[in-house]
Amino acid sequence: MWIADNWNDYQVIDCSAGEKLERWGDYTLIRPDPQVIWDTPRKHPGWKNKNGHYHRSKKGGGEWEFFDLPEQWTIHYNTLTFQLKPFSFKHTGLFPEQAVNWDWFYNKIRNANRPIKVLNLFAYTGGATLAAAAAGASVTHVDASKGMVTWAKENSVSSGLADAPVRWIVDDCVKFVEREIRRGNHYDAVIMDPPSYGRGPKGEIWKIENAIHPLIKLCTQLLSEKPLFFLINSYTTGLQPAVLAYMLGTELQRFNGFVDAQEIGLPVSSNGLVLPCGASGRWEAYK
């Protein structure tokens, strides 16, 4: 498992009975987590002294209950600064487990000794975009949600990367890739973090189990002659690491590189466990 264990401003403190207790900077939140199927005593005082608690409804969805939590605050990861705010369906605007992937491709970009163009699809609030930009890459950031792209721009300003070479695109990711192929554009690296299910800006339906392999095939047409890496992340239960590895290995076999795929996770400070948080598949060029 690849573990995101370099955080100072974020921490999974404890987990029990379908929920996790987290520290986001100066604030503690309780949020549901489907992986936490065990029930252990909640001894940490944070369970009682929380700043926010997302209660899941038995009918689906849920709602926040707040206890002295600001509408927005920031946390830091290395040189990056992220704006956080609780919004619908338990999220805060950041997936901290992705830091293990940020570290990986940050070092690859820094050590490439050449200009690197990165395409980041389903780019959300820009964690991967900013990590790649901080490493010196030029990045095309694509997400179907105008609100998420605006949030990502705010994070770029907070991180001192307002002038970094980033293209901010609000578009359906598949249609954008198809247009880039027709335009003859190429990239040295592709990052994608697709949802299990979603809709594009014009109502386009995305189901990962049907759409992910065709999209990988499309994206290989955008790769430069010497691609650096290709990263896929998945939170979908049915897409095991081996499945990600097979898709990448099959579609990138004409390039000189190798594939690895693992679960990703976050350390739990109270008990030494690691909380699973999805899976990532990585193709990288041989050195």
Word description of this protein:
This protein has helices at 99-110, 127-134, 146-158, 173-183, 208-220, 241-251; strands at 2-3, 10-16, 19-24, 27-32, 52-56, 62-66, 73-77, 80-84, 117-121, 138-143, 166-170, 189-192, 197-199, 205-207, 229-234, 257-267, 274-285. By secondary structure, it is α/β, with parallel strands linked by helices. It has 2 domains: 2-72, Sandwich (Immunoglobulin-like); 96-285, Vaccinia Virus protein VP39 (Rossmann fold, 3-Layer(aba) Sandwich), CATH 3.40.50. The strands form 4 sheets. The protein has an 8-stranded mixed beta sheet, with helices on both faces. It has a 5-stranded mixed beta sheet with strand order 2-3-4-5-6, with no helix packed on it. The longest helix has 13 residues, at 146-158. The chain is globular and about 55 Å long. The relative contact order is 0.14.
Topology:
Elements (H helix, E strand, L loop, with lengths): L1 E2 L6 E7 L2 E6 L2 E6 L19 E5 L5 E5 L6 E5 L2 E5 L14 H12 L6 E5 L5 H8 L3 E6 L2 H13 L7 E5 L2 H11 L5 E4 L4 E3 L5 E3 H13 L8 E6 L6 H11 L5 E11 L6 E12 L2
Parallel strand pairs: 1-16, 4-5, 9-10, 9-12, 10-11, 12-15
Antiparallel strand pairs: 2-3, 3-4, 5-6, 7-8, 13-14, 15-17, 16-17
Low-pLDDT ranges: none
Approximately what portion of the residues adopt beta-strand conformation? 25-35%
CATH level-four homologous superfamily name of the largest domain:
Vaccinia Virus protein VP39
pLDDT averaged residue by residue: 94
| Alpha-carbon distance between the two ends | 23 Å
Number of helices: 6
The beta-strand count equals 17
- Broad structural category: alpha/beta
The share of residues in helices is 10-25%
How would you characterize the largest beta sheet? Answer: 8 strands, mixed
> How is the CATH topology of the largest domain named?
Rossmann fold
What Rg is obtained from the alpha carbons, in whole angstroms?
19 Å
Biggest sheet, spatial arrangement of strands = 1-16-17-15-12-9-10-11
Going by CATH, the architecture of the largest domain would be 3-Layer(aba) Sandwich
Just give the CATH class of the largest domain. Answer: Alpha Beta
